[in-house]
Amino acid sequence: MSVQQEAGVDGEALEVWIDQDLCTGDGICAQYAPEVFELDIDGLAYVKSPQDELLQDRGATTPVPLPLLTDVIDSAKECPGECIHVRRVSDSVEVYGPDAG
């Protein structure tokens, strides 16, 4: 199974994004899933593309790789800023994070 395979709830693809306005710069996400999250020079966390590029646009999303699903979910749960949002790609419904049902 390659890291490129995307995670999903019931097989649905998931993506993750960070609200930098709420980011506290703790870096917990980068410790849990450094393949997905990275702190930039501004001290805030951003998601990275599957090609390992830092995505600095507001609301930028990246696919959640299946092997890292638990790490990404734990990041969202442990984030003190509650700024990590994991949602379904198909309908943009948040499944983990502060806005999850």
Automatic annotation (TrEMBL):
Its cofactor is [4Fe-4S] cluster. Transmembrane segments: none annotated. Keywords: 4Fe-4S, Electron transport, Iron, Iron-sulfur, Metal-binding, Transport. GO terms for molecular function: 4 iron, 4 sulfur cluster binding; electron transfer activity; iron ion binding. PANTHER family: FERREDOXIN. Ferredoxins are iron-sulfur proteins that transfer electrons in a wide variety of metabolic reactions. This is Ferredoxin. It comes from Streptomyces griseomycini.
